[in-house]
Amino acid sequence: MKTTVINSLENFSGTVLIPVFETGIKNLIPIKFGEISIPSSVFYGKKDSSYLTEQDGNLYLFIGLGKIIDFKALQTIFRRIAFKEKDTFTHDVSLFLPEAFTEEQVEAAVSGLFLGTYNLGHYKTKEAHPFLNPDFELKILSSNNFSESITKAVKIANAQLETFALVDLPPNKITPKYLANWAKDKGNELGFDVKIIGLEEAIQQNLGAFVAVGKGSEKEPQFVIMNYVPKNAEKNLKHVGLVGKGITFDTGGLNIKTAGMVHMKCDMAGGAAVLGAMHLIADLQLPVKVTAIVPCAENAVDNQAFLPSDVIYSYSGNSIEIIDTDAEGRLVLADGISYLIKNYNPEYLIDVATLTGSSVATFGYECAALFSNNETISKDLQQTGESIGERLWPLPLWDCYKNDIESEIADVKNFSGKPVAGAISAAKFLEFFTKEHPAWSHLDIAGVAFIDDEFAKTKHATAFGVHLLTKFIEKL
């Protein structure tokens, strides 16, 4: 996907996209663009409205933005245009950027256009979106120099599109080995180191919780470790650690799921968010050191599967009583968190996971649950998410919830067994393995990673977390 800046529409032939801020239905001054004049009674820039006209062989699509618009709404409007109006696109497409646009609004509009090329029908015979033609270049018409914002927007969209596919493709395609190879390929392409720990080495390294979850599947688990250091790195770089849950399919194990299993290909969306964030961080060459771990495994059922009431040992050396094999995500995260702290000791630590139905029951599909032992970081994550439409809201980590994970036979148990406070008890379980790391945050994205919306007929990926993690790290 390429872009090029043009100074005028002279000699241009094609479709012109013109965003318009709302004026008012009774406004006496018409909307004007070049020689085109549209009376307010016909179009006045109302949010989500549009007006298509033709002049001298060119198509002009006016896009209403409303009076005030946030990043997510603007991105969605342009994604909708690219997704639903592609039949109006000729070989050449030009996007006009108003002088009033900020750099963030340019990012939202351009990234939205490219996100609109995504089609869930990966295995369908279909015609490619015009933007995906190898010869296509989006012409940017602007009197301001937005070149950096445009380049960044394309990179944001590329990383999110990759993440869409990782989550939406079926589990017989997206296996632990596939994710490991994806990470290695991206590392080679974008310049970060990747180490893969397979089953035998994981056993030798005492990654017991990770091994327990993956041993019921014929698909070998893969413990993916990525290290990014920017080129020409300065000393004393801030160091961020990321951990993402990479359960490529979750049957529930022997506590087999009785509903909703068809959607469990999305149980690696936290891992996909971390993979996508590493893609974007390296592509943007952010001046921060990042170490990311994605424990990838399939929680399946066979005669090797771990059992309810088993006691296993984690990488930290602590014992875990297995109350529910469907509470497996926190097990692989526990080993990921412990491994990251022991071997890399990052200054900041964030884990991301589609962890609990409890978070969905609390927040629905509007925001993710945020847990943190650091109020400053919690607020920064919230503000970052709010600025791009990836909302977070904090829940408590009070000590009174420790009882939910206390075991009589082991150091800790993996499930409270209670029908209440599930997201909190899961977070308390993870907190146990952070060894009081002073800057840890946990994002439970179960309700926002895989949703219903206007861009497909079935549930599909949102890439929640890719932009959020990257932008948070960028601001450090």
UniProtKB/TrEMBL annotation:
Give start and end of each Cytosol aminopeptidase domain: 166-469
Q: Which residues form a coiled coil?
A: none
What residue intervals traverse the membrane?
Answer: none
| Keyword set includes Oxidoreductase | no
* A GO MF label: aminopeptidase activity
Please provide the record's keywords in A-Z order.
Aminopeptidase, Hydrolase, Manganese, Protease
Q: List the Pfam families hit by this protein, alphabetically.
A: Peptidase_M17
Top-level taxon: Bacteria
Family of the protein in this entry: Belongs to the peptidase M17 family.
PANTHER family found in the cross-reference section: CYTOSOL AMINOPEPTIDASE (PTHR11963:SF23), LEUCINE AMINOPEPTIDASE-RELATED (PTHR11963)
What is the name of this protein? Leucyl aminopeptidase
Organism, scientific name: Flavobacterium pokkalii
